[in-house]
From TrEMBL:
Domain of life: Bacteria
Basic and acidic residues biased stretches: 1-12
Identification of the protein by name: Uncharacterized protein
Lineage of the organism: Bacteria, Bacillati, Actinomycetota, Actinomycetes, Pseudonocardiales
UniProt region (Disordered), positions on chain: 1-28
Length: 646
């Protein structure tokens, strides 16, 4: 299934030609499909079965191909993929069966085409880079055509081939690397460059029409005068072909014409007249490269997909107070939705932009950007006579020196986004894809929304966000920081165990000041010395502020978890209770599984033995004698005497 952004047009209308006028025996000599490309040009795809030894098999697959294209309305790219799959498979059958290849047919048991398909699918991945999705696409195309033939009631198919059609393909799907978003520095550079390009375009067009207003028809003026040539183009009095035919040879050009094409000195190329015609047209109407700047600005300002921005029409724009309301169309989802944008320059975290770079340029004001777009394309849109009223319209001089005003095609190889970046000296890391700018906006939105996906996925499903946008570097870094913070929080709780005092404090002013210097308040220090904070195994400096219970409630886990709590204070007088608690943990350790004991009591066990290790053997022996010679006992909750392994 194509990813978002792969479709830049609706499925084109197709004109199917089942075959040529020439026949070759029982098989048609040629199968042709004429499809419109993304640039609305007719593109022919043809299969000639007689080029293969297995011409019968090729004709069968070609027949299914033509019918499937007509029924499904496949785009030109998919048409080419099916043609490539048929060509590759038929070549493999020729090599595999040799002299028996002419007998190959989907309705025959011999030669065995099921084994041929399996062998071809095993061979396919070796002809493409590792992880490529192309082998899976080609293998799937052949299986689709075979399934169509199986379902046809009047076209018999061998049993082995039917079983093959019902089974799944063994070709790995491959891995489409997710596009990473632009860094913040790269995004700022893109926006800054785009605004600079828009301002330069407006100045260029204003200067061009000013010169045209001062000119006249070249027949009454001069064919080497720039104002006269611009006047002729602006008033449709001349064409680029006329300029090419009427201009003198390039060797006698005046200096001002030579400077237009950037070659003031030296010999001029043979295509100098074409370059001059394109330069003159660019002084009056925007070119294909010029419109990239507006798409960058609108994608950044609105956060919408680039293909939705490029398809905006005059009817999709409604200016409202302090902003604009846009009607946007997701062609792949066949969904129309509306969004309003206020003209308030804000940055990615919601603050007003007041930097020196953008002080006089409304960085994120969609309404202002669209007004300027409509201003620079107004004359081109009038000449284009586009019934849909697309906003992105440019003027172009084709190879036949014909001046055309047509819908903008940003994917044409000579004028792609990467060319615009190179022309303006913008250096980025990774792939030069405008969709990365959309992803940057999405990442900023989810960061501002503090991870609330439903707010960031406001123009598609949340699952789409998780699949295509949640893998960005920024979100991975943010996620790692959150995880590290959470881990550090619980690690601090684990390592910040009880505070151990080596000497028993007495009720003196010096002892109170010493305890106060350790972080206790005067009241806590006094209560600690008088035994009012004794929780059984340890003392507690804040029994109503326990990390294990709601604030304001008495700790519900004392004394079982005191040895894991940062509020615990251990005095030398509590050594007998610590020894009794150690005996209790020893009994639990013998009864419980090691993994279970470590999970439940591991931290208490570690902290307890760390405390006992600081006591001398004499102190421990005296504590044992005190336990044996008195009625000292360990007071624990009833639940502490019942343990379960699961």
């Amino acid at each position: 299934m194509p990813r978002k952004g792969d479709y830049v047009r609706d499925f084109p209308d197709l004109e199917v030609e089942p075959g040529s006028s020439r026949d070759s025996g029982p098989h048609r000599n040629e199968w042709v499909v004429v499809a419109s490309t993304a640039t609305k040009r007719n593109q022919s795809s043809r299969i000639v079965p007689d080029r293969y030894a297995c011409s019968g098999l090729a004709a069968e697959l070609a027949q299914e191909w033509v019918e499937y294209v007509e029924a499904a309305g496949l785009a030109a790219g998919s048409v080419q993929s099916y043609r490539q799959a048929i060509a590759s498979f038929c070549a493999c059958v020729d090599n595999r069966f040799g002299a028996a290849a002419p007998d190959a047919s989907l309705e025959k048991d011999e030669p065995d085409l099921a084994r041929a398909v399996a062998a071809w699918e095993r061979w396919l991945p070796s002809n493409f880079p590792e992880g490529s999705t192309r082998p899976s696409i080609l293998a799937g195309a052949i299986r689709v055509l075979i399934r169509r033939r199986v379902e046809h009631p009047e076209r018999p198919v061998a049993d082995a081939v039917i079983a093959l059609a019902r089974a799944g393909s063994g070709v790995p799907v491959g891995d489409c690397g997710e596009l990473d978003e632009f860094s913040r520095q790269e995004k700022l550079e893109l926006v800054r460059t785009a605004w600079t390009a828009v301002v330069a375009l407006e100045k260029r067009l204003a200067g061009g029409w000013e010169l045209a207003a001062a000119g006249r028809h070249p027949d009454h003026g001069c064919w080497t005068s720039i104002p006269d040539l611009l006047w002729g183009l602006a008033h449709q009095a001349i064409t680029p072909k006329d300029i090419h035919d009427r201009l003198p040879v390039s060797t006698s050009w005046p200096a001002h014409l030579r400077e237009c094409i950037g070659l003031p000195d030296g010999p001029l190329p043979r295509t100098a007249k074409q370059f001059l015609s394109r330069w003159l047209v660019a002084q009056l109407w925007p070119s294909t490269l010029d419109l990239h700047a507006f798409r960058v600005l609108l994608t950044d300002a609105t956060g919408r997909a680039p293909e939705e921005i490029g398809q905006l029409t005059g009817n999709d724009v409604e200016f409202v107070p302090n902003g604009v309301r846009l009607t946007l169309v997701k062609k792949r989802a066949q969904r129309r939705y509306y969004r309003s944008f206020t003209d308030k320059p804000v940055d990615s975290v919601g603050g007003v932009v007041e930097t020196e770079d953008f002080r006089n340029l409304p960085r994120r004001e969609p309404g202002e950007i669209i007004r300027r777009l409509m201003g620079v394309t107004e004359r081109a849109r009038q000449r284009a006579a586009d019934p849909e009223g697309k906003l992105f319209v440019r003027a172009v001089v084709d190879v036949g020196l014909r001046l055309k005003f047509a819908e903008w095609n940003p994917e044409a190889p000579p004028v792609r986004f990467s060319v615009w970046l190179r022309e303006h000296g913008v250096t980025i890391t990774g792939k030069a894809d405008i969709r990365r700018l959309r992803k940057s906006t999405k990442v900023e939105k989810i960061a501002v929304a503090r991870g609330r996906i439903h707010q960031a996925a406001d123009d598609h499903h949340e699952q789409t966000f998780r699949g295509h946008y949640a893998q960005g570097t920024t979100l991975r870094v943010i996620s790692a920081e959150v995880i590290n913070a959470a881990q550090q929080h619980w690690f601090d709780h684990a390592v910040q165990g009880p505070t151990v005092l080596a000497e028993q404090p007495g009720p003196t002013r010096e002892d109170t000041e010493r305890l106060h210097s350790l972080g206790l308040t005067d009241q806590q220090a006094d209560d600690l010395m008088h035994g009012q904070l004794d929780m059984g195994v340890t003392h507690c400096s804040a029994p109503y502020d326990s990390p294990y219970s709601p604030r304001g409630e008495l700790c519900a886990v004392a004394p079982l978890r005191c040895l894991e709590c940062r509020n615990a204070w251990i005095l030398p007088s509590q050594l007998p209770q610590l020894l009794l608690f150690a005996d209790h943990l020893d009994r639990l350790r013998q009864r419980m599984a090691p993994a279970r004991f470590t999970a439940v009591w591991g931290q208490s066990w570690t902290n307890l033995h760390a405390v006992l290790a600081e006591r001398t053997e004499e102190e421990i022996a005296l504590a044992r004698e005190h336990i044996a010679g008195s009625d000292v006992s360990l007071t624990l909750p009833l639940a502490a005497h019942v343990e379960f392994d699961a």
